[in-house]
Amino acid sequence: MKAEQLQSQLTQTFAALSDPTRRAILSRLMSGEATVGELARGIRISAPSFSRHLKVLESAGLIAREPDAQWRRCRIQPQALRTAFDWLKNYDQIWDDQLNKLSAYVDELNAGAKTRAAHGKRRASSRG
Fold it and tell me: pLDDT digit string (tens) for 54-106?
């Protein structure tokens, strides 16, 4: 995938994922295909608003909608999520480095606290 295409795909994917209703739809589809009516059940928004959410997810390549008799069945499309995951994975090393630095800093603070505590006990015992 070209860099421009990748950026466009990521922009659409993250924009689609930014909405809690759309994330709820995707979560439901993780357990399998569902009709639009099944997906809308329990989500308290108008039918046109729900339809717009589905269109955003479909445009981002996150879901596919296919006719099935009088219903439209939806299923998750994992490739767009894979693209976003792979992009985020590039930042794993940065997070690992930052967490390692934080861990070293905490260890340093704890070592200093133990040294101060031991020094304080020696002082107290020499006075008594």
Answer: 999 999 999 999 887 888 899 999 998 999 999 999 888 888 888 889 999 99
Structure tokens at 103: 């861990």
- Choose among 91, 102, 68, 77: nearest CA to 16: 77
Side by side, which strands form the sheet with 34-35? 34-35, 71-76, 63-68
Structure tokens at 84: 């976003």
- The beta strands (E) that lie in 1-128 are given as 34-35, 63-68, 71-76
CA distance 34 to 73: 5
Assigned token pair, 40? 């809308």
Helix, strand and coil percent figures for the chain, each rounded to 5: 70, 10, 20
Note the pTM of the prediction, 2 decimals: 0.71
